[in-house]
């Protein structure tokens, strides 16, 4: 059940984070304003040591100058307070602008990833667990938000302050601080080596977290099954192993990052203290004033603080680089099924859709060695009701999957553009239609009814968001759902719970049928639509479906999958599948007379 993660070669954080540039571009005006406030706040910070130097030197004059000194001191303290006010205003403006950018870009990134995933074909979910996608949407985007909304701003601010402090130190103490600068460059190289390891470990840690999220998402959706098999201890143990693996990866990442931070702080502190020691010697030798030394001390403190913060920020950047890589992998994934650049319009006559399969071959990507359909040819006339029957695995559901273009038919060479067979709707190749156009004309009732965490009214209206309440109720009545919906505590406004846990299987199925009827599609696909119903409910829903088919005679084409043959005895045509091939087709009585596969299935079911 473990998910697979694409491998990625180590890259620099800047290159990994470059995937965020398209999300930053629309807000370049706000980014420019944030940078302006950031620079102004940094300059205000750098102005403090200069004012401090003049304050100290002016305060150490002779006694004859005391009155003038007092007036000068008041002026200089006022200047310092003005600098502090400017620093507070600029810092607050920078904080607001950068935090806004972090929240906005994170929201845009989540929306982009979620929208992109929704457009992926089912093939994508054969190899990617939904829990992993959720991990990327939550944990990874939170890391990106931390960088864009906080760490990056802190890093830029401290980079400007540190660079400014370093320039001032080299300017005022050129020889000593020149040596310090040269040594700092040497210190950076091993720091970069440690940083590469932190980035790799950060990616591994995020992958482990995604694995545990995937396990949790899978099991929480199957709690009744887990409890019925008393498998709670083993599932708890499996999740604990995943979280322990994530913890171990996080510890390795944290250890490497702690080593990086310690190395940067200790190495740079040692160098700066050496420079400060040389400055103190210069004061004692009379080569530097006390104010000059005070200025140097503050600049050294600013530089040391900036370096320490930059070490922390670099660790955050490394973590965010791994998270961004994972998000960009999702955004870079391309669905093998997509709308053509110049789609063809689907001619609709109001008499249902004509469907034609011509020598279709298909293998599921996850099972390339087993043919789901082989040389499959089938035509449905507009308004015709056709039933697909056969044993499990015969290819019935695959027909539905291909009709909705969740997959495309096989290509002649396995990768080229020439398909092995074609599917047509009203004479138009499915590949020439826009996906939205194609699917808007198809209504589906799956075997496992999907109920959303919303009211009954909203669940049915999902088939036609523009439908009125009255139209929703008409569809519910046609699916024999009206009575039990009216009996709910709040009627149609009753919240149905996650996956419809408050309803029985038959009730969920009738809501799904009402949803499809409300859509009123030209092509209706029923995949064992009555499978979850008891005998009485099945009779009512089958009557509702028959009534709907009769009312739409000549206006809707219907394709039905059925294991229980009694539900399709009245179909216009029954098609029998075996191992992906059509072996028989005809009306119920005709197939019984053939005494073939269908007759054997019928004998088993009707005799039982």
What's the β-strand tally?
A: 10
- Structure class: alpha/beta
Q: Helix content range of the residues, please?
A: 55-70%
CATH class of the largest domain: Mainly Alpha
Low-confidence stretches: 1-11
Stated plainly, the CATH topology of the largest domain is called ABC transporter transmembrane region fold
The whole-angstrom Rg is: 35 Å
Task: Give the domain tally.
Answer: 2
First-to-last CA distance: 39 Å
N-to-C order of helices and strands: HHHHHHHHHHEEEHEEHEHHHHEHEEEHH
General shape: elongated
Largest sheet: 6 strands, mixed
Second-tier CATH architecture of the largest domain: Up-down Bundle
Instruction: Report the average pLDDT across residues.
Output: 77
Explain the overall architecture.
The chain is of the alpha/beta class. The protein folds into two domains: 19-332, ABC transporter transmembrane region fold (Up-down Bundle); 348-441 and 568-608, P-loop containing nucleotide triphosphate hydrolases (Rossmann fold, 3-Layer(aba) Sandwich). The chain contains 19 helices and ten strands. It has helices at residues 13-17, 21-24, 28-58, 66-118, 122-127, 130-172, 174-220, 223-228, 232-284, 290-332, 396-403, 435-440, 456-461, 469-478, 482-486, 505-519, 535-551, 588-594, 597-607; strands at 355-363, 371-380, 385-389, 422-425, 428-429, 442-445, 523-527, 557-561, 573-578, 581-586. The strands form two sheets. A six-stranded mixed beta sheet has the order 6-7-8-3-9-10, sandwiched between helices. α3 packs antiparallel against α10 (290-332). The longest helix is centred in the first third of the chain and has 53 residues, at 66-118. The radius of gyration is 35 Å and the shape is elongated. The model is unreliable at 1-11 (pLDDT under 50).
């Amino acid at each position: 059940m473990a998910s697979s993660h694409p491998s990625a070669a180590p890259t620099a954080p800047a290159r990994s984070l470059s995937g965020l540039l398209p999300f930053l571009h629309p807000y370049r005006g706000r980014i420019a304003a944030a940078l302006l406030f950031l620079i102004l706040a940094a300059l205000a910070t750098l102005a403090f040591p200069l004012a401090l130097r003049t304050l100290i030197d002016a305060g150490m004059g002779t006694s004859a100058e005391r009155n003038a000194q007092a007036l000068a001191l008041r002026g200089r303290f006022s200047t310092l307070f003005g600098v502090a006010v400017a620093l507070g205003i600029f810092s607050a403006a920078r904080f607001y602008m950068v935090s806004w950018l972090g929240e906005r870009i994170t929201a845009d990134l989540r929306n982009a990833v979620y929208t992109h995933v929704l457009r992926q074909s089912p093939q994508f979910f054969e190899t990617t667990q939904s829990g992993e996608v959720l991990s990327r949407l939550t944990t990874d985007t939170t890391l990106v938000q931390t960088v864009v909304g906080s760490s990056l701003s802190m890093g830029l601010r401290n980079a400007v302050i540190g660079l400014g402090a370093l320039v001032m130190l080299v300017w005022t103490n050129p020889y000593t601080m020149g040596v310090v600068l040269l040594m700092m460059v040497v210190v950076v190289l091993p720091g970069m080596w440690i940083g590469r390891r932190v980035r790799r470990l950060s990616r591994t840690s995020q992958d482990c977290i995604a694995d545990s999220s995937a396990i949790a998402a899978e099991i929480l959706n199957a709690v009744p099954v887990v409890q019925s098999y008393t498998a709670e201890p083993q599932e708890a143990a499996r999740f604990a192993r995943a979280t322990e693996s994530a913890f171990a990866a996080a510890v390795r990442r944290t250890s490497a990052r702690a080593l990086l931070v310690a190395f940067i702080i200790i190495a740079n502190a040692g160098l700066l203290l050496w420079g400060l020691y040389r400055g103190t010697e210069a004061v004692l030798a009379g080569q530097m004033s006390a104010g000059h030394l005070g200025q140097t001390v503050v600049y050294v403190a600013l530089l040391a603080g900036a370096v320490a913060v930059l070490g922390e920020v670099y660790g955050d950047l490394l973590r965010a680089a791994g998270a961004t890589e994972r998000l960009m992998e999702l955004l870079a994934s391309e669905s093998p099924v997509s709308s053509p650049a110049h789609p063809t319009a689907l001619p609709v006559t109001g008499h249902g859709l004509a469907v034609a399969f011509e020598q279709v071959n298909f293998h599921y990507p996850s099972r390339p060695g087993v043919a789901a359909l082989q040389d499959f040819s089938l035509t449905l006339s507009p308004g015709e009701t056709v039933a697909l029957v056969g044993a499990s695995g015969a290819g019935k559901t695959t027909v539905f999957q291909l009709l909705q273009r969740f997959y495309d038919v096989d290509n002649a060479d396995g990768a080229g553009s020439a398909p092995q067979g074609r599917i047509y709707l009203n004479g138009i190749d499915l590949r020439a239609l826009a996906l939205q156009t194609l699917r808007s004309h198809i209504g589906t009732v799956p075997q496992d009814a999907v109920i959303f965490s919303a009211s009954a009214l909203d669940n049915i209206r999902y088939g036609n968001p523009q439908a009125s309440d009255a139209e929703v109720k008409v569809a519910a009545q046609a699916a024999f759902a009206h009575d039990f919906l009216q009996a709910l505590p709040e009627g149609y406004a009753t919240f149905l719970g996650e996956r419809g846990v408050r309803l029985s299987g038959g009730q969920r199925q009738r809501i799904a049928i009402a949803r499809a009827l409300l859509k009123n599609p030209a092509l209706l696909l029923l995949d064992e639509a009555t499978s979850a119903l008891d005998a009485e409910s099945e009779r009512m829903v089958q009557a509702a479906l028959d009534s709907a088919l009769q009312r739409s005679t000549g206006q809707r084409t219907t394709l039905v999958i059925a294991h229980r043959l009694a539900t399709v005895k009245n179909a216009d045509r029954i098609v029998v599948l075996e191992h992906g091939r059509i072996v028989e087709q005809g009306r119920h009585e005709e197939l019984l007379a053939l005494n073939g596969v269908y007759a054997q299935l019928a004998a088993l079911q009707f005799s039982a």
